[in-house]
Amino acid sequence: MGVTIKDLAREAEVSITTVSRVLNNKPGVSAATREKIRRLVKIMGYNPNSIARGLVLNQTFLIGLIIPDIRNPFFPEMARGVEDRARELGYSLIYYNTDKNREEERKAFDLLLSKQVDGVILSFFSWSIKKTLLKLNKIQYPVVRVDSNLKKSIYPSVIIDSISSAYQATEYLIKMGHQKIGHITGRITSRTARHYLIGYKNCLRDYQLAFHKQWLVRGDFEHQSGYQQMKELLRQQDKPTAVFIANDIMAFGAYKAIAEMGYTIPDDISIIAHDDIELSSYLIPGLTTMYTPKYRLGIILADLLIKQIKNKNRAEIDDVVLKSTLVERGSVKRLR
Amino acid sequence: MGVTIKDLAREAEVSITTVSRVLNNKPGVSAATREKIRRLVKIMGYNPNSIARGLVLNQTFLIGLIIPDIRNPFFPEMARGVEDRARELGYSLIYYNTDKNREEERKAFDLLLSKQVDGVILSFFSWSIKKTLLKLNKIQYPVVRVDSNLKKSIYPSVIIDSISSAYQATEYLIKMGHQKIGHITGRITSRTARHYLIGYKNCLRDYQLAFHKQWLVRGDFEHQSGYQQMKELLRQQDKPTAVFIANDIMAFGAYKAIAEMGYTIPDDISIIAHDDIELSSYLIPGLTTMYTPKYRLGIILADLLIKQIKNKNRAEIDDVVLKSTLVERGSVKRLR
DNA sequence: TTGTATGCGTTATCAC
DNA sequence: GTGATAACGCATACAA
Q1: Less crowded by CB within 10 Å, the N or C end of chain B?
Q2: Of A64-68, A130-134, A153-157, B117-121, minimum mean pLDDT range
Q3: How far is B252 from chain A (nearest CA, A)?
Q4: Nucleotides in chain C near protein beta carbons (<7 Å)
Q5: What's residue B150's pLDDT?
Q6: pLDDT (tens digit, 9 = 90+) per residue, A325-334?
Q7: Closest Cα to residue B247, out of B284, B211, B290?
Q8: Predicted TM-score (pTM) of this structure
Q9: Footprint of strand C on the protein (CB under 7 A)
Q10: B22 CA vs D13 C1’ separation (Å)
Q11: Do A162-291 and A57-161+294-325 fall under one CATH topology?
């Protein structure tokens, strides 16, 4: 196919060893030959075959990125962060969307390992795949995870502290004078959704507000469910005055439901959500939400993974806990 | 690192050739040994090294996907289509975000070729890179492009006919009784933006409506500019009654601008946009826009590319033209 | 039915 | 300064 090191050697009338030396900027080549080969590289358009390089070095400079679904607005931000930093450090990314499907997650691992990626980034895995992870750990295979689990893992993780984040959101509503606070959950099979629920409940408890079962409705992180569940909430006799919605996407649906039923935000009902995706500031009124540093998350993931790749010894398992921060816009009303 | 074909051979007490045969389901192995090796594969957890495989087969089953920015909501949909179909056919994807930056685009090519990808998908390149493409074409390197250029290229393309699409959008406004029609353009350096402008102008001409320079304002495909440019439009004495906005994202900004200035959609001003990203139906009122089949676009791209990869001979250059279709929601008012 | 030998493009070891 | 040569893991032409 392309021009190889061998072609260069023939053309320059030297051995491939010499060529390899100048390509890798190693000493032991006269300035003259070095120059000659450099010129040839340009003229002949040589591009190193990193596949062959990977075979001998046992390193491909490839990283596997396993995510649930790139169409979820959370992930492009994160992925871009990973990619930018990874490229900066000389690595490329192979993506794998799993839809949080166990079988796909398993396949993703096999495939990526087969492609000899130097490490893999796992985000929001639906199961712990403990066995696989243990096996990888034994052979010192670099992995980082992003999750909302505070428990120590055998691999470094970036943790989004969803419990505290949900707590903050709820607390904000309370401080704004709300007492009747509802919650639209995420897909409850996900740990993140369960953590939000815990944070919400903890906060109610700490502020001695009764937990009303009818104000807790189940969404699944998709707009559709935000729409439906908000309608559910609004149909009730005794409505909440504020709702904590598990993500911005569902808030979009909720906005629509509220408008359709003739209510207005924040006068009739206040909304706080989670994530702060890019379009949320363009809702009317602007969505008050918990900002999660998605791009930065990506940067950190790349750093953590590549650090592992470089330190074969793998001394520290340093977890990073990422805090979400409140972004006040116009969707929460101060009561009384 | 992992267990290799050699390990299997040693364990099974056969040659690596035999092992290779059963791994690739080739004939010429007794059922007994075949079975024995198959068992060993499971027990020892063998995972083929596709890097080594790629070296000898001269095929990596890797595809390069070059896009401007995965954070633009258009691309996750498309990328997911590519990935799903590619995986189905046994290929994985390396992503490369270029931000439409020439230097990055050039680097992307070098990197991807160096990774020995079997082909590359180019979407919305900012320049023609004719020289590179010609060189690749000479060595029969598989490439597909997605663009809005109807001109024949040396490589197969999926073409989004933006001129006709903008024409349709404008025509729809006219048929709804509008005569005073504005346009917020995309970043005018992009061909797509220019094509929208052409379609818009063509339509005005065909319906004998005068083109008013002050109703043509320049955006850049980002919400921010939709917001600003819509304000610009609304500040005018003689306002348009309807505006064709070059993409949904800018329409989000425009909605906000309109609300802030105390106008309502569609009573005071009608809006039609382009793309139909997922959240657009949740705007209030729902955004009327031109739907572009982004996921399907991805599927087609993967098919076209892999077809090329398989037919080394590369008989046909079949372009595919994708039409956008109108999605009527609530942002355009029928006049009179 | 099975095995030997060679090569893919590159780097590393060792010799000259 | 330079060059043979082996090796990485795998597939395959050719022998046996």
Answers
A1: C
A2: A130-134
A3: 6
A4: 1-5, 7-13
A5: 65
A6: 999 999 999 9
A7: B290
A8: 0.93
A9: A 1, 4-6, 16-17, 20, 23-24, 48-49, 52-53, 55-57; B 13-18, 21, 27-30, 32-34, 52, 55-56, 58
A10: 18
A11: yes
* B255 vs A contacts (CB less than 8 Å): 282, 284
Chain D footprint bases within 7 A of protein beta carbons: 1-5, 7-13
Amino acid, res. A292: T
- CATH architecture type of domain A57-161+294-325: 3-Layer(aba) Sandwich (3.40)
| pLDDT mean across residues, chain B | 93
Strand ranges (DSSP E) for chain B? 62-67, 92-97, 119-123, 143-147, 157-160, 181-185, 216-218, 242-245, 270-275, 288-291, 320-322, 325-327
Residue A156, CA distances (Å) to A121, A141, B17 in order: 10, 12, 40
Q: B331 CA to chain A: closest CA distance, Å?
A: 14
CA distance A145 to B1: 22
Residue among B1, B97, B227 whose CB faces A83 most closely: B97
> pLDDT (tens digit, 9 = 90+) per residue, A94-107?
999 999 898 999 89
The CA–C1' separation of A83 and D7, in angstroms, is: 33
Domain residue spans of chain B: 5-48, 57-161+294-325, 162-291
Using CB atoms, which residue from A76, A84, A278 is nearest to B76? A76
A162-291, which class in CATH? Answer: alpha beta
Q: Which CATH class is domain B5-48?
A: mainly alpha
